[in-house]
Write a structure and sequence with these properties.
The structure is a single chain. With 236 residues, the protein is mainly α. The protein has two domains: 97 residues, Helix-hairpin-Helix base-excision DNA repair enzymes (C-terminal) (Endonuclease Iii, domain 2), CATH 1.10.1670.10; 100 residues, Orthogonal Bundle (Endonuclease III, domain 1). It contains twelve helices and no strands. Helix 9 crosses helix 11. The longest helix is centred in the middle third of the chain and has 18 residues. It is elongated. The chain starts with 13 loop residues before the first helix and ends in a 12-residue tail after the last helix.
Length: 236
């Protein structure tokens, strides 16, 4: 790959891949943020529910009108799914998500005093909130060491070689990542993996020619060779 040099030791430990990954991003992208637009925990949890199998860009387009009509959990909980549907018709699975949002608003109002809980188990009780969504909210809002594994995190973690091939479920990937990522960096690493998968390590044809992680990437090593040279510093 012209103009892009990648070097690998003959055998690379997983801890070395993590070291390089973490060193690179803490140096070059120290404050990553979600691309979902929100101003409160309520707005974020609604946006994350809508973002399931949908782009953040699409969610950001529908959120202003939705929030204008349903600005609080009480407003959302008082609405029927049929009233919510027109505002989210352009997202994926709008019928199911309209039902989830109505139930979400009711439960937040009736059981959580209209406050978004911080605990993973409480978040998962909310309609439309699975482990991934709960981890996003806990990480982004409450800065807890929760690793949300979406399709990007799953794909990138396997391609780079951060997780073993035996990690075949999102939960297994989550646990494998948490073994090596310091608690203080978990919430940031979540964003680093997502954004890297969204813009560089894309699903069909990863952009290896511009990727800064090729020196430690198992996918690149397998497909483009294994030069026998010393591993360069991650921050170089």
């Amino acid at each position: 790959m012209a103009g892009h040099i990648a070097v690998f030791p003959i055998l690379m430990r997983r801890v070395d891949r993590f070291r390089y990954f973490l060193d690179y991003f803490t140096t070059n992208f120290p404050e990553p943020e979600t691309e979902l637009v929100y101003n409160s925990p309520y707005e974020l949890i609604v946006a994350v529910v809508l973002s399931a199998q949908c782009t953040d860009k699409r969610v950001n387009l529908v959120m202003p009108a939705l929030l204008q009509q349903f600005p609080t959990p009480a407003h959302l909980g008082a609405a029927a799914p049929e009233e919510i549907f027109p505002f989210i018709r352009s997202v994926s699975y709008p019928n199911n998500k309209a039902k989830h949002l109505a139930g979400l608003g009711r439960m937040l109002t009736e059981q959580f005093n209209s406050e978004v809980p911080s605990q993973i188990d409480e978040l998962q009780r909310l309609p439309g909130v699975g482990r991934k969504t709960a981890n996003v909210v806990a990480s982004v809002i409450y800065n807890l060491p929760a690793m949300a594994v979406d399709t990007h995190v799953f794909r990138v973690s396997h391609r780079i070689g951060l997780v073993p091939k035996s990690a075949t479920t999102p939960l297994a990937v989550e646990k494998a990542l948490l073994r090596y990522i310091p608690e203080s960096l978990v919430s940031k690493a979540h964003h680093w993996l997502i954004l890297h998968g969204r813009y560089i390590c894309v699903a069909r044809t990863p952009k290896c020619e511009i990727c800064p992680l090729t020196p430690v990437c198992a996918y690149f090593q397998k497909n483009y060779g294994n030069p026998a040279a010393a591993l360069p510093p991650a921050t170089a």
